Amino acid sequence: MEYQVEDISPVKKQVTVHTTAEEVNAALGTAATFFKKDLKMDGFRQGKVPSSVVEGKFKKEITDQAARDLFNVHFSQIFGELGLEPMSGINMDTDAQLERDQDLNYSFHFEYIPKLDLPEYNGLQTTQKKVEINEDMIQSAFQRILRDNSTLELVKEDRQPADGDVAVIDFVAYQDGQPLENLQAQGFELPLGEGQALQSFEEIVKELTPGQSGQGDVTFPDDFLNSELAGSTVTMQVTLNVIKERKLPEVDDNLADKLGFNSIDQVREHIRKAFSERMEKMEKSAAQKRLLDQIMAVTDVPLPQSMVDSQVDRMLESKRAGLEKQGKSLDSEGGEDAVRQALLPEAEEVVKAHVVLLDIAKREELTVSNEEVDVYLYRVAINSDQDPQELKKYYEENNLMFALRDSLLADKAMDRIYENAVIEEEEPEGSGQDTSEAETAVE
To answer: pLDDT, tens digit, for every residue of 304-323?
Structure first.
């Protein structure tokens, strides 16, 4: 096997490979041996079927297996001699087909992380806020737990619904005097004051008492997800059937038992501990970012375009999902192309940080074991109620293992920088820290 390397960019190379017919024949023969060892055919003993017969019967399977084996040997040798590792997989430029007694020429390209001119990254200095948990934080989280375990009870008094109530309604939307088939429902439970419906629609409901009907105009925003309704005005006819209000559970040992604890004191202690752990992670993450920013500020990093494109894709899908939860679409932000362009600078910073960390991981000779990969996938699977083996199979079949290993490796590099840094503890400002993320984690 011979090969030539061409530099396409500072982070991309193309390799052209020439393989002799002898190598091709050897690869086909090895693959055929694998298929024939258990093969049974009339007139031959098991495992003794001639290779030529086996290759005729399983030509495609043998050719595919031989190609995979041959390419893997070539890739291992080439990357070893170049001292490089592909970043986002290997992209074949030609459709390489193996034929017995024929030479094979093919080419591929790959992106890689170049060796960076890094500053000294050991012994960096930064601050980290001290975590303080106060009673107001615990009580706020506890109240949400009570709400999550509340029951809905029928309101018997004749009154209008208010924020915090659940209105059970029938409604039909009319446009130009015609009912809209996809905008009507019966027995619909609408929580009021939680932003689940347009404010103008909730105001119609709040003017009613049980058994009463009413109507009003509702105008949908221009960026509403349903493009047929976006910017249009409809007339909503609403009937309020009943009002339900939340009844919080008694704060006693029965509630504690339902939550999996022996007492309410244990529930509160669990909240305190969960708050503390989550906020410690948040403050550590903030300190790590400050350390990494110091390195990135003085490091020139050529970026692999495929990594930038993939990062933009992930951020775009996250943006799309967030807008859809608000009943909006990417059109509200100027369309997909505009959003991609707006996300590009942030995506480049994310990739730059990733490249820097992988370079440090290589210098520090950090590795990720198969066991660590399996543990990570197991945790992801359990937390998302998936089968661990099926999740691993998905990662393997979609060529996601390289990216996963790199991500775990980057995390290790960040931990190494943090461990070797000089961290000065800092008192929280004012009444405390931003706890919104931690509160979500506690629940």
So the answer is: 888 899 899 999 999 998 88
Q: Which domain holds residue 343?
A: 254-442
pLDDT mean over 392-396:
87
Tell me the pLDDT band of 48, cut-offs 50, 70 and 90.
Answer: low
Nearest to 118 by CA among 300, 292, 362: 300
365: CB partners within 8 A, 6+ apart: none
What is the amino acid identity at position 159? R
Residues 368, 418: Cα–Cα separation, whole Å: 18
Domain boundary pick from 213, 247, 281: 247
Q: Read off the pTM.
A: 0.68
To 5 degrees, how large is the angle CA 190–CA 208–CA 192?
A: 25
- Tokens 């080439």, located at residue: 78
Same domain, yes or no, for 218 and 275?
no
The amino acid present at 384, given as its one-letter code, is S
Report how far apart the first and last C-alpha atoms of the chain are (Å, whole number).
60
pLDDT of residue 56: 67
Question: Which residues are registered as beta bridge partners of 2?
Answer: 18
Cα radius of gyration rounded to whole Å, the chain: 31
Q: For residue 116, tell me if it sits in a domain.
A: no
Q: Are residues 229 and 288 in the same domain?
A: no
Residue 151 to residue 259: CA distance in whole angstroms = 15
Tens digits of residue pLDDT in 187-218 = 999 999 988 899 999 999 999 999 999 999 99
Assess if residue 145 is contained within a domain.
Answer: no
* 286 and 430, same domain (yes or no): yes
State whether 229 and 259 are in the same domain: no
Label residue 442 by pLDDT band (50, 70, 90).
very low
Question: Can you read off the two tokens belonging to residue 313?
Answer: 């894709």
Q: In this structure, which long-range contacts are made by residues 253-261, counting pairs with CB atoms below 8 Å and at least 24 apart in sequence?
A: 255/149, 258/149, 259/145, 259/149
- 172 with 260, same domain? no
**Nearest by Cα to 189 from 209, 204, 167:** 167
**Residue 157: what residue type?**
E
